[in-house]
């Protein structure tokens, strides 16, 4: 299989279903940002972190491929002529969202209560989590804008929202595991 097809040389690309759109289309930006997020999560997974976090991150990366596939599908071609879904894969569901919530609850049970915003940083691995969190928020914003134009399964949008929360809590957990200092943001008062 050749990697280069030359079909995008004039600035268009094909959605799942064959529809061609400009490469700057919000749908492409949405799933491209999800792909970027997936790469950042791979970077976190490559760090020296606990096995459970690595296991959950692999699961998340798998789900992000599903999110990308949903976003890459032309809604007008999402259903085949025989009535079946073009995407013949499990979609994001409530259980996927609940897994993130459960993992956040477990991590939070072992963390000190937050009293202030926390400045990103303290350790390279923690910073990678914060970068992934920010990319996830961007993916969510783009997907939200796309959803207004062409709705898709709302679990997909909800998953991105919950994932950014998960990445924040993971950053705090890893700060604790790595004994990195969490620097509180305490704004200076005007005099």
Tell me what you see in this structure.
The protein is mainly alpha-helical and 191 residues long. The protein has one domain: Cobalamin adenosyltransferase-like (Hypothetical Protein Ta1238, Chain: A). It is 55% helix and 6% strand. It has five helices and four strands. The protein has a two-stranded antiparallel sheet with strand order 1-2. The protein has a two-stranded antiparallel ribbon with strand order 3-4. The longest helix is centred in the C-terminal third of the chain and has 26 residues. It is elongated and about 60 Å long. The N and C termini lie far apart (66 Å).
In short:
The chain is mostly helical and 191 residues long. It has helices spanning 26-45, 51-71, 94-108, 124-149, 154-177, and strands at 12-14, 20-22, 117-119, 183-185.
* Count of beta strands: 4
Task: Identify the CATH homologous superfamily.
Answer: Cobalamin adenosyltransferase-like
What form results from the Cα inertia axes? elongated
What is the CA-based Rg, rounded? Answer: 19 Å
Please, what is the average pLDDT? 91
Order of adjacent strands in the largest pleated sheet:
1-2
Give the helix/strand layout:
Blueprint (H helix, E strand, L loop, with lengths): L11 E3 L5 E3 L3 H20 L5 H21 L22 H15 L8 E3 L4 H26 L4 H24 L5 E3 L6
Antiparallel strand pairs: 1-2, 3-4
Helix pairs in contact: 1-2, 1-4, 3-5, 4-5
Key features of this structure:
Hypothetical Protein Ta1238, Chain: A; 4 strands; mainly alpha; 191 residues
């Amino acid at each position: 299989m050749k990697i280069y097809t030359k079909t995008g040389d004039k600035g268009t690309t094909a959605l799942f279903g064959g529809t061609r759109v400009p490469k700057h289309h919000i749908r492409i930006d949405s799933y491209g940002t999800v792909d970027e997020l997936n790469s950042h999560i791979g970077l976190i997974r490559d760090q020296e972190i606990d096995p459970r976090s690595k296991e959950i991150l692999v699961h998340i990366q798998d789900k992000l491929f599903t999110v990308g596939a949903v976003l890459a599908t032309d809604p007008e071609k999402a259903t085949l002529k025989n009535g079946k879904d073009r995407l013949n894969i499990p979609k994001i569901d409530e259980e996927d969202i609940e897994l993130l919530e459960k993992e956040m609850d477990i991590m939070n049970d072992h963390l000190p209560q937050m009293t202030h915003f926390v400045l990103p940083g303290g350790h390279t691995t923690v910073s990678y989590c914060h970068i992934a969190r920010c990319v996830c928020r961007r993916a969510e914003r783009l997907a939200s804008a796309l959803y207004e134009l062409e709705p898709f399964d709302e679990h997909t949008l909800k998953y991105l929202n919950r994932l950014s929360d998960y990445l924040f809590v993971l950053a705090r957990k890893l700060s604790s595991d790595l004994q990195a200092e969490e620097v509180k943001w305490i704004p200076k008062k005007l005099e």
